[in-house]
Amino acid sequence: MGDTPEDSFEVWQEFGGFYDYVGVKSAKPGAKVYAYFSDPTTEVSGSLPIFMASQFYGAGRVFFQGSGEVWRLRAGGDRYFDSYYTKLIRWVSEGRLLRDSNRGVLLVDSDRAMVGQNIALRAVLVDDQFQPLTEPSVTAKLLAPDGKIKDLKLTPAADSPRGGTYTGNFVVTKSGGYEIQLAVGDALDEQLLRQSVQVRLPTSELERPRRADDELSNLASTTRGEYVPVDESTAMSEVKAKLAEAIVPQSQVTLLAGTPDSAFTLRRNAVLMWLIASVLTFEWVTRRLHRLA
């Protein structure tokens, strides 16, 4: 609602909240939940009620808002209320607004993401007769920030009420700008659908630079390890000793059939040498005794 994410966060922090909500059973497959109703007394089976969620549908999006009390934003200024609904309507109708091609539309579930986040793609395409495309799959190009190009395979959506709808996803692994390009049509009438995603590194560690001792301890116990905290008062020799005690030797002996054994070869050759020498000596002694030599 503000000019920057920080301004928007501050507005929501100062907002008085909502007093009621419309209950829903659960999120549908493929839906993305953005907010829950935070009143702990409304929790059911360990889950809070869904308050804001969206999902791709057809050539656009649908958005669920669990209350009509957004008008309370006017307590901080009418511009916040107007900005919220203006941006929401533009975002939901993005599929129609971005339809610069009569052959289809390409959508992403989020045009801003954090490193490691999964981005869902949805394309609604028609053929040259403007009928839903019936190809078993289509291939888009993903241009990464480092200049590498990767193929993205989009397959028909199982939850689509009409044909010609294809879905896919990819994981953003680097910060920077990603661009998705999907060529539709033949060589004489090829059209290019584009979408972009801006990715940045998570800033939670920079905003809250503290060590999560509880999470680290739980992780160590879950993986049958030992959590050794390091503080200014902790001597490194003590830490090294604890680590040495905690690391259990995992030595093992593996027998590989057919692998040459140099020690066995040496012993075998020595035995053969002594055996040959003994036979020759026995022959020479026998010949001497019988005066054959």
TrEMBL record:
InterPro entries, alphabetized: Class_I_gatase-like
Name of the protein described by the UniProt record: Uncharacterized protein
Organism this protein belongs to: Rhodopirellula baltica WH47
